[in-house]
Amino acid sequence: MPKLNLDPKRTHPLVWCAAIICTIIAVAVIIAGLVVFIGYMIIHPTVPFITITYAHLDNFNYDQVGQMDIQITVVVKAENDNAKAHATFSDLSFFLYFQRLQIAELTADAFDVLKNTSTELQYIVPSLSIPLERTAMEEVDASLKQGRIAFDLKGAVRTRWRIGVVGSVKFWSHLSCQLKFLTVNGTSINSRCSSKSN
After folding, report:
1. How far is CA 39 from CA 13, 33, 165, in A?
2. Are strands 111-113 and 101-108 parallel, antiparallel or unpaired?
3. What is the per-residue pLDDT across 61-76, written as a single tens digit (0 to 9) for each?
4. DSSP letters along 136-159, please?
5. Which structural domain, as residue segments, surrounds residue 131?
6. Which class for 80: exposed (0-12), middle (13-18), buried (19 or more C-beta within 10 A)?
7. Where do transmembrane segments lie in this chain (predicted)?
8. Is there a single domain that holds both residue 80 and residue 28?
9. Considering the entire predicted model, what is its pTM?
10. How confident is the model over 11-27, as pLDDT tens digits?
């Protein structure tokens, strides 16, 4: 008559080792998450951002052949509202457009902004004679009749900040502004705008 073996099968030592390692990793992840969460709640960090604080149309010439010459001054302000972390801005690249025609690119080397401070970058953007297509010429004609003209400024900058135990955090800040000017004296009309982060 066959006999039943009721002795439990012994667990292999490698299985126990794997279970212990997984438990240690899980506990470490939970502790790290708690540290990051508590650090975030204590510091309440804000994402550094870019703002256009000033714009002026210094020069605007247009002839009936369809050639346009401009010069625009733009002041870009990099702001870091964090009281406990300095920020780094890098890969800054903004493009100036008129009617989807790229006129210039605004760039800057990587730079730091200290805690709770800001840094201003001033750009004087001249252009060579820009040949305009018919639709752009019609837009310039309409703008001259209205006494105002608009340009688009679009681009992005990478922001990075380090907060104690929370670690290093990186974001891309995207900027999309319409710069409007009076054609008679180049004064800007509600040109202030700020970046959005993701």
Report:
1. 39, 10, 7
2. unpaired
3. 888 788 888 999 999 9
4. HHHHHHHHHHHTEEEEEEEEEEEE
5. 49-197
6. buried
7. 12-43
8. no
9. 0.72
10. 667 878 888 898 999 99
